[in-house]
Design a protein that fits this description.
Layout lengths: L1 H34 L13 E7 L6 H9 L6 E8 L5 H11 L6 E6 L5 H11 L4 E5 L4 E2 L3 H11 L3 E10 L5 H25 L9 E5 H6 L10 H11 L3 E12 L5 H21 L3 H4 L2 H34 L6 H22 L13 H25 L15
Parallel strand pairs: 1-2, 1-4, 2-3, 6-8
Antiparallel strand pairs: 4-7, 5-8, 6-7
């Protein structure tokens, strides 16, 4: 009986506990940023930047992405397009875009004969890139005009910054799933990154859709790792192992497309969860070697996976009670607190992103639906990731363009 009570308290109490931590950290982070003066890097002092755009079957998204790069207010950069053996007209589109923007964009095309995955494509792009600073984006990423300026300004601020990641904002909001992910990116992902950066001095992972690197740091860690599911999480922790810091710059905005079908969303989140497991396996020494802030992030990953397992067991237990004993005991007070904190969390995220993310107040009406969506999607993806990892611990190779709702 005591174990059941403890398990129930953990299943409901853990989300409450972490929500309090992230909300508090985000608020203090916002206050800290307001007190800090910031001068953007001057055009005459801006270093040369290589923007890497890996692509596989991206004929529907690539042209718009290039248009956003052409509109950057950063003047000293090149664009490296990497075609990872696309089976559609992506390679031809790249050639057409290079000709179209000739004289306006310094563009290089790398055509790979075999599809070996995003990490390998980025490494091939790194080989031909000329910049001492690199920005990696996805082929559906639309950067705000000042995004690269914001990233490079932050990267130059500290000589031990190996990477700086920007803020993704969902742009496809045509159905419920897209709108729920919009809430997630502003009310969870952005909020957590702000809190992590402020409270621990580190973040769990850069966002692969928009991240800037110091070439020196990338070379030191051997580039991107093609032997993992999530190259962005992996490179973050390899930077930490080599004593580089990683920062979050929410003023660098990147508009992205997200899955609009549940199957595509679950596959994406399973990949993210598996990336977290791979980090634990490859960085277990970090529990006693890394700085305390990074140890906390590793511990939080362990606890979140434990939460997923216990929550699954609790759901089975509740189902048995409901079907065979015709009774169900839930702590209503804890559930009310969880909903209240979720409302506060999303209000904080909404207020901090209302202008940049072009949000409308009715978006907040979806918060109750989102709470159920978020924890259930996380639960399913985490459990499936744990299962897939034990079944097939080694996964490498190809990639496919994900469900982007287009």
């Amino acid at each position: 009986m005591w174990f059941n009570n403890l398990s129930t308290a953990f299943v409901v109490g853990y989300p409450i506990f972490v929500s309090i931590i992230w909300i508090t950290g985000c608020l203090f982070s916002s206050l800290y940023r307001r007190q800090q003066s910031r001068t953007l890097v001057k055009p005459t002092e801006a270093p040369f930047v290589s923007i890497l755009v890996p692509a596989h079957n991206e004929v529907d998204t690539l042209e718009e992405a290039i248009q956003s790069l052409a509109a950057l207010d950063y003047s000293h950069y090149e664009v490296v397009l990497i075609d990872d053996c696309s089976s559609d007209a992506t390679r031809d589109l790249m050639a057409s875009l290079k000709e179209q923007w000739r004289g306006q964009l310094d563009m290089t095309i790398v055509a790979l004969p075999v599809n070996r995955g995003k990490a390998n494509a980025l490494n091939q792009g790194l080989r031909v890139a000329r910049g001492d600073y690199l920005v990696a984006i996805d082929a559906d990423s639309l950067l705000s005009p000042d995004a690269v300026t914001q990233l490079i300004t932050t990267l130059l601020a500290q000589p031990d910054y190996g990477a700086v990641t920007g803020k993704p904002v969902v742009r496809n909001r045509s159905n419920l799933l897209g709108r729920l992910q919009l809430l997630e990116y502003i009310g969870v992902i952005d909020l957590i990154k702000k809190a992590q950066a402020y409270l621990t001095g580190s973040i769990t992972t850069v966002s692969g859709v928009i991240v800037a690197f110091r070439r020196e740091a990338l070379i030191a860690v051997g580039g991107w790792n093609p032997d993992v599911m999530t190259e962005d999480i992996d490179v973050t922790w390899r930077l930490y192992r080599h004593h580089w810091r990683v920062a979050y710059e929410p003023r660098a905005i990147c508009w992205i497309l997200v899955p609009e079908r549940l199957r595509g969303l679950i596959k994406q989140r399973q990949r993210w969860s598996r990336g977290g497991l791979e980090v634990l396996v490859t960085n277990w020494r970090g529990f006693y070697r890394n700085p305390w802030g990074q140890r906390f992030l590793l511990l939080e990953t362990v606890v979140s996976n434990l939460w997923a397992v216990l929550t699954a067991l609790s759901v089975v237990s509740y189902a048995i009670q409901l079907l065979f004993l015709h009774g169900l005991a839930l702590d209503g007070n804890l559930l009310v607190v969880l909903l209240l904190l979720s409302g506060i969390q999303f209000t904080v995220g909404f207020l901090s992103s209302q202008v940049t993310a072009k949000l409308a107040v009715p978006e907040l009406l979806l918060v109750p639906v989102y709470v159920l969506y978020y924890w259930m999607v996380n639960l399913i993806s985490c459990l499936s990731a744990i299962g897939s990892y034990f079944i097939s611990p080694q996964r490498t190779g190809t990639w496919r363009s994900p469900d982007r709702g287009i």
